[in-house]
Amino acid sequence: MVYAFLIHTLRAPQAQDMGLCRVLYSCVFGAENSPDDPRPHGAERDRLLRKEQILAVARQVESMCRLQQQASGRTPMDLQPQSSDEPVPLHEAPVGAFRLAAGDPFQEVRTVVWLGVLSLGFALVLDAHENLLLAEGTLRLLVRLLLDHLRLLTPSANLLLRADRIEGILARFLPHGQLLFLNDQFVQGLEKEFSAAWPR
Amino acid sequence: MTPRLLNSCASLCLGRIQDEELQKFCSRVVKLLQKEELGPDAVDALQRLFLIVSATKYKRKLEKTCVDLLQTTLCAPKCPEQLQLLCTAILRERSPSDDLNLSCDHVQNSRQLSLVASVLLAQGDKKEEVRSVGQRAFRVLESRQPEGPSLRHLLPVVSKVTHLAPHTLHEDQTNLLSKRLVDWLRYASVQQGVPHTSGGFFSAPRARQPGPVTEVDGAVATDFFTVLSTGQHFTEDQWLNVQAFSMLRAWLLHSSPRGPSSPDTDDKSELEGSTLSVLSATSTASHLLPPQERLREKAFEYCQRLIEQSTRRALRKGDSDLQKACLVEAVLLLDVLCRQDPSFLYRTLSCLKALHARLCGDPARVRALLPIAQFFLNHGEAAAVDSEAILQHLFTRIPCELFHSPMLAFEFVCFCRDSLPVFGRNLDILRRSFPNLFKLLAWNSPALTSEFVALLPSLVDSATAVEMLHTLLDLPCLTAALDLQLRNPSCLEASRDPQFQGLLQHLLRATASGTTERLAPLHQLLQPLASLTRVVQCAEAVPTLLQAFFSAVTQFADGALSNQLALLLLERSDSLYQVPQYEAHVHRVLSSQFLVLCARHPSLVVELAKELLEFVGSVSSVHSREAMLTAVVWAVGEYLSVSWDRRCTVEQINRFFEVLEALLFEVTQSRPSATLPKCPPRVITVLMTTLTKLASRSQDLIPRVSLFLSKMRSLAQNPAPSSDRCGEDAGAVCTRAAELLTLLKMPSVAQFVLTPSAEVSEPRYHRDTNTALPLALRTVSRLVEKEAGLLLG
Questions:
Q1: Cα B604 off chain centre by
Q2: Smallest Cβ distance to A48: which of B57, B229, B332?
Q3: How do beta strands A95-100 and A120-127 pair?
Q4: Which of A100, B223, B369, B711 is most buried, by CB atoms within 10 Å?
């Protein structure tokens, strides 16, 4: 199952420093069991820890994406479509995976699958031993849906204020972090249902 | 959307909102939510509130009325989905939270239960939220009729709860769900659904049927419904079929009564297992089985059907991708089933062998080979099947051809790591394939370095250590060669130069050859590629890998292997692929590891005396291999003595002395120039110290070294005008020379200080006032000072 899904900023590989990596949206499905720490944890402290963990993942994804882009000699502009109506060629977007050891930053071993599109990074934090083919497919699907329904690539888009749409997509395509085996027709049907509930 | 724009959007929205402003905003939200009609104003306000709450990692204080109202809105029966989702999101974003008093006890609507659950499950289970959510979900499940559109919201909740807290369910609850899963998996409708008139997604299965479901290649479905069955519209139970399969593997693992993956039959001996497998090959009367076993039986049938369905040629790309994911899942499921009930093994083996043969010829499906290999590793022993052929194929073919795919490379390496406990006799295949595995690493170093650091201890053994060290040092060169091969696949045949061909072939070999080749000509030929980003990234990873390699090797290396490795370090230190900064970093690691080898096998210095003499004799080493030279000289000073190896002769000590003295003379007398920069003071001091140590063991040398040291001291105190020796460096040299001269005035003390016996490492040695070193040194200093005073006065 998926432990968390996040969207964050991706700075261009050549940029020296244009601010920090920011998590734009994150959704944690369930929670890690509290560690066997005898000290009482304030709820606030737990929340802070969770936010920091997600940020750590975002930073690592950004770093991996940048390294991969630099190594393959690509620039983020390679993915820019000719017009904003054309779909972004997602099959060419950089994608990768890495493992996080237990304790660093999550209690348990977890795997991260990520995908980068222009200046946005998308990542799924998975439990160990998940079906990575399914996870990769699900991530691509989520990104495609988010790009389409939130029009993320148009200049006036503002994903920060449209969390309800993101939640709507997640509730249908990744309910409670459950990866679903959806064939094309199922996806179409669900998408129609979503569009009906959320007219653009 | 550029990052700058995103950032400014964020600050616009947040407006650096202060606490009082936030309070005012909360009151506004409360007013909007209390209205009869919840309109776009409310949506807008909640969207902003979500942003405020989620944008900071610190807690924002919200008014209690506001929080309570969010909770009630969420649970309100007629609330539109958009608002419900926003309330859920805000409450979840604040979790874990002490001011939450949400409960799932009275929620009947399963969609709302799902939303409430997502908030409760995020609390961290301090108040047994997971258990209460799970129990509530099951109560709804039990009370529901089989038809009805809302069960689809429940299954993911159940799946999550089982995952988070596997043992909160009672046996009858587990049995109930297992029974329902059987129904959904095996007996879903094979007719397509009808479009709902109101534009919704579901239909009652009893309505007019528009035709049977189809396979992904368009043919009419030949058997029961699965995730690879398609149609224009779907029925509720078909939807549940999809969800049931999606959660099946986790459910089987976590709902097993005696723990996650233990078989729930008592001690089956292998013989019993095979007898039973013959019986269960004819799977009749399955409805008489208990629920868990029946579920396994149906799961098995589902997997077989998926494997058959994956042979079809899908019309759409999305379905083709799904086929691959289904293949992987089917194999993973079969693995779980066989672990839980060995009687499945007989039927599974033939099925998987056929699948493996089919996939070998299909490059698009290569990722499915990994779980198959995993299966044979897990169950090969029990089934008396030789998994060697499968592993050979996996290790020799796949990495060569597909090293450039980051996901495959990652999965492959994870497979190696995770399967280490079950490799057994086949561990040899893994070890011999290290050249191929290193291709994955060379191409994808940022993502895979930490995985390889964990994997290295199991990869290296005494037979492959030397070859592996060479390969590690040549890793960036391998990256360059792979780049060349990828861009120009025929470069191997096209080149006229047989030497180049031979070396390239060696570098790109698939398995350990047992030989080593000097790749220096290849380094030169590939020099233009040394500045490629990918090569540089690989070069940056090598020092870490070397450290991991040596920590593993030093655990088992005997004297002979240590000698080989030490020589290798010396030889390779000036034969590295010239990537910017690579040499400097590698030298640092190699020099410290050389010392580690010497510390573990001090006789190394005596046994390799000839080679070490040669090494320290060349002046060029001073500048090109300073770190290595320093380490070697220091090691000679430490370990070239009878106390470490009885075979050490006076002649050896004298020979080393002469060579080192000559070296020191050359580096201090020669003028620094453009080609020969100034000699680093560390080299000078270590040479002086080693010379002194040697002299303390062969005391005829003491006058010579004392003379030399005095010269050094005066040189340092009065530097020649042309030398640019700076004050600090000169001071260090001067101080060291003085210390050593002082020591040499009392030869037996010098010997004691500079050639301590092995007992020095015992604490007693230092506590006992008769043997303590600091005491001895102080004594010497006072005596010498007194002597000097006498001389002067």
A1: 35
A2: B57
A3: unpaired
A4: B369
Report DSSP letters for A140-154, one per residue.
HHHHHHHHHHHTTTS
Mutate: best of B41, B43, B67, B85, partner A, most A CBs <10 A: B85
B235 touching A (Cβ < 8 Å):
no
State whether A34 and B216 contact (CB < 8 Å): no
Q: What is the DSSP letter of B123?
A: G
- Cβ neighbours, 10 Å, residue B661: 18
Whether chain B has a CB inside 8 Å of the CB on A198: the answer is yes
Chain A residues touching B201 at Cβ < 8 A: 189-190, 192-193
C-alpha distance from A86 to closest chain B C-alpha (Å): 16
What is the maximum span of chain B, computed from C-alpha positions, in angstroms?
Answer: 123
For residue B253 the two structure tokens come to 């693992």
Does the interface ipTM go beyond 0.90?
A: yes
The band of B424, judged by pLDDT with boundaries at 50, 70 and 90, is confident
CA distance B624 to B675: 11
Q: What is each CA distance from B336 to B178, B249, B272, B332, B741, in whole angstroms? A: 16, 8, 20, 6, 74
Which of A112-116, A172-176, B51-55, B547-551 shows the lowest per-residue confidence on average (mean pLDDT)? B51-55
Burial grade of B594 (CB within 10 A; 0-12, 13-18, 19 or more): buried
Q: What is the pLDDT of residue B180?
A: 92
pTM of this prediction?
0.88
Task: For residue B241, name the pLDDT band (cuts at 50, 70, 90).
Answer: very high
Contact check, Cβ <8 Å, B329/A131? yes
- Domain ranges for chain A, please list them: 2-83+91-197
pLDDT above 60 for B725: no
Q: How many residues are given for chain A?
A: 200
Give contacts of B540 with chain A, Cβ < 8 Å. none
Q: Look over chain B and give the mean of its residue pLDDT values, rounded to a whole number.
A: 85
Do B234 and A186 count as a contact with CB atoms less than 8 A apart?
yes
**Interface-testing mutation among B233, B246, B419, with chain A (most A C-beta atoms within 10 A):** B246
B676 close to B670: Cβ distance less than 8 angstroms: yes
Residue B158, CA distances (Å) to B113, B131, B168, B275 in order: 11, 11, 11, 37
Does the beta carbon of B792 lie under 8 angstroms from any beta carbon of chain A?
no
Report pLDDT for B253. Answer: 92
Interchain pair A161, B13: CB under 8 A = yes
Please give the structure tokens belonging to residue A146. 């988010």
CB contact under 8 A, A22 and B407: no
Q: Please, which pLDDT band fits residue B583 given cuts at 50, 70 and 90?
A: very high
Q: Write down the pLDDT at residue B703.
A: 87
Chains A–B, number of C-beta pairs less than 8 Å apart: 244
Summarised one tens digit per residue, pLDDT across range B244-294 is 999 999 999 988 765 444 444 444 444 444 444 444 444 455 567 889 999
Which chain B residues are Cβ-neighbours of A111 within 8 angstroms? 414
- Whether the bond into B96 is cis, omega within 30 of 0: yes
B537 touches chain A (CB under 8 A): yes
Whether A29 sits inside 8 A of B118 (CB atoms) is yes
Q: Tokens 């990537």 belong to which residue?
A: B579
The reply to whether residue B231 touches residue A185, judged by beta carbons under 8 angstroms, is yes
Cα–Cα distance measured from residue B97 to residue B95, given in angstroms and rounded to the nearest whole number: 5
CATH 3.40.50.261 fits A2-83+91-197, yes or no: no
How far apart CA B305 and CA B215 sit, in angstroms, is 11
Residues 58-87 of chain A whose Cβ lies under 8 A from any Cβ of chain B: 63-64, 67-68, 70-73
Instruction: Report the SS3 class of residue A52.
Output: helix
Mean pLDDT of chain A: 86
